Amino acid sequence: MKEFFNVETIEAVLAHAASFSPVDTEMVPLAECLGRVLAEDVFSDVDIPDFNRSTMDGYAVRAASTFGASEANPAYLNVCGQIKMGERPSFTVHPGEAAKIATGGMLPDGADSVIMVEHTDRLDDTTIEAYRSVAPGQHVIEKGEDIRRSEPALIQGIRIRPQEAGLLAACGKTEIEVFRRPMVGIISTGDEVVPVDRVPGDGQIRDINTHSLSGQVLEAGGVPMVFGIVKDDRDDLEEKCRRALQFTDMVMISGGSSVGARDYTVEVLDELPDTGILVHGISISPGKPTILARSGGKAFWGLPGHAVSAMVIFTVVVRPFLDRICGLRQAVRRLPIQAVLRRNLASAQGRVDYVRVRLVEENGTLLAEPILGKSGLIHTMVKADGLIAIGMNKEGLYEGETVNVRLL
Amino acid sequence: MKEFFNVETIEAVLAHAASFSPVDTEMVPLAECLGRVLAEDVFSDVDIPDFNRSTMDGYAVRAASTFGASEANPAYLNVCGQIKMGERPSFTVHPGEAAKIATGGMLPDGADSVIMVEHTDRLDDTTIEAYRSVAPGQHVIEKGEDIRRSEPALIQGIRIRPQEAGLLAACGKTEIEVFRRPMVGIISTGDEVVPVDRVPGDGQIRDINTHSLSGQVLEAGGVPMVFGIVKDDRDDLEEKCRRALQFTDMVMISGGSSVGARDYTVEVLDELPDTGILVHGISISPGKPTILARSGGKAFWGLPGHAVSAMVIFTVVVRPFLDRICGLRQAVRRLPIQAVLRRNLASAQGRVDYVRVRLVEENGTLLAEPILGKSGLIHTMVKADGLIAIGMNKEGLYEGETVNVRLL
């Protein structure tokens, strides 16, 4: 019996993402914060730096003492001391005086700038010539110039990159509140599917989706929780779905949208408490027969069984939901690579077509070469560098057009 | 005393990368292979799929039985059986016959194609009408069409993405030989630098580089090994360097290229056995006073002390060496994002300038907005989305020029 979908656009599906809540938070040590999503606004306990700091090796001076100095007409300055790293200088720099300072040193009272050692000559133990004039503040990072303790250094909801880890260190954060990594339950279905450690018999194939989807979950900052393979058995499916919903923050069942298993999946969803189907069919290819349900506040996905289709749907549709559940404050900007399409591509109107492409450089131009092939062939994803979209109202793209490539 | 560098171009420095060797290999379970570098050529133990497989729900037929069929003139076919998923059909499809098959099912002997259920009508228990003709091979993945067992499915030296994890599963690989994650020793130097858990006193600043560089090492697939902060003490520095070289595959010392510490670093390198300085100064800004040495076959880096400079040098110079040590077969293609420069940028000739930029979208155009600020300010890296390079022979870039942005 043929089933008719009430197909929705990708945009309409993505609009549901905001209705799911981020997971709760936990504390992690600084060394483990990379890639995690920050869950607190961060303030430094001190100004950074907490003193006027030299950015050069040279002499701390009052800028006015150097005004007018040149190669032809150097300023003569008295060396009044030497600054030790990591200590407050005990003396003051007066007009006409200079104090030896290294990069990172603390400016003494009275000094407002640093003249680079390359622009000076030492005449004797107590006198230098300065060949340039410096401006007030030159070669100095002022107290609080990097981060002021009164202002937030970081706002919650961002993914922590190496530079944010550095900034957290500067702020004295040895422990950081981050969103917990969401657990994502993964279920494969199909009587023909066998686990990786089995040699497939006649008509059997190994489970690919559990492993490609686990990889995509890990890349997105989640933790995959594998529930194994469900044969076409309604009771087993219901029990696995119940367990997955109990122990994880989001569930993905793959193959569950092909005709036989889809019937079971819909049946099971109909029986689970506090569960409703939000989407049943998306105007996208590959991956049209995708299901999205909400069960007890959690997203539950019925993904296509074909390996390529499941990965494309994860990339384009599921990932923004997972980003939201991860605690990311804003939709993640996916900046595309621009390339020139290498051949004509036909497409059906009324749906968005995602085409796998390989990127090839020729004479300095980046070309996108479509990889055609059935959506059941995982090797086409291995050959692919990215995906291009052909919009709803387009009948195709022409060779030579510039396309936006979303890297895989 | 001023030191003169024998400054080399970035290209000349990067050419040294090929002279370092990848680390050794280890076995990891399939579930842990994501992001690792494959160290073996992978063959499947079976053809994938190992049988002719339907890609649709419908009927397995001999294509010739449908030739000429249309809505007006359907072909009548005898239903000779139904294919069970995951089993070899026990019957043969003869001319004029059709066997019910679901997506993923195994084609019976005699059948060479599948007609979609949507293009048929069931007349009674044993007869269907087919409204379309199908070509031989249509809606079928042929035995070995995804992967042939006689050909390598994957070649060593690539980083494993989710799709490669899926392919490894299909090939029956429960354990995979990958390159060990290289250990990277990280040493910070400076009398003014204190650890994160200390409140900086007068003239002191917390250690940023250990944490930003650790993050960069993790992102690159390495394992940071932190050796802490060395005060400006030659013996302590030597001991830490010896230990780091002993226990890791590459060493980065930051701050060790500023005048004081640089002298010590060079002294220490001169005394270590089987050690030679390869590079002392790169025509790049920020980060000119970078040191690269080889010690017992391992790369040893003296990175600048300023937080931004150290991160830029890691991104542009160190990372390709680490990629090589990780076992990656080819130089990693870093595909840039194109954007339009938002203001004029001046630059000195004779060096490559790296400028931090923020990416802003305005009226559908991606703009690169330079973030100016001293290279000692970590918050400028936090604000930045990427880096743009201004070439050796350029005096600058103009507002409105298209620039290539390397994401951070």
UniProtKB/TrEMBL annotation, chains A, B:
Gene3D superfamilies linked to this entry: MoaB/Mog-like domain (3.40.980.10), MoeA, C-terminal, domain IV (2.40.340.10), Molybdopterin biosynthesis moea protein, domain 2 (3.90.105.10), Molybdopterin biosynthesis moea protein, domain 3 (2.170.190.11)
Xref: InterPro entries: MoaB/Mog-like_dom_sf, MoaB/Mog_dom, MoeA-like, MoeA_C_domain_IV, MoeA_C_domain_IV_sf, MoeA_linker/N, MoeA_linker/N_sf
One matching Pfam family: MoeA_C
Gene Ontology biological-process entries: Mo-molybdopterin cofactor biosynthetic process
Coiled coil segments of this chain: none
UniProt keyword annotations, A-Z: Magnesium, Metal-binding, Molybdenum, Molybdenum cofactor biosynthesis, Transferase
Keyword Transcription regulation part of the UniProt annotation: no
Cofactor(s) essential for the protein: Mg(2+)
GO MF term (any one): metal ion binding
PANTHER family: GEPHYRIN, MOLYBDOPTERIN BIOSYNTHESIS PROTEIN
NCBIfam families attached to this UniProt entry: Glp_gephyrin, molyb_syn
GO cellular component: cytosol
E.C. designation(s): 2.10.1.1
Record-stated family: Belongs to the MoeA family.
Domain MoaB/Mog: 185-324
Enzyme class, spelled out: transferase
Pathway where it operates: Cofactor biosynthesis; molybdopterin biosynthesis
Protein name: Molybdopterin molybdenumtransferase
Purpose: Catalyzes the insertion of molybdate into adenylated molybdopterin with the concomitant release of AMP.
Reaction catalyzed: adenylyl-molybdopterin + molybdate = Mo-molybdopterin + AMP + H(+)
Domain of life: Bacteria
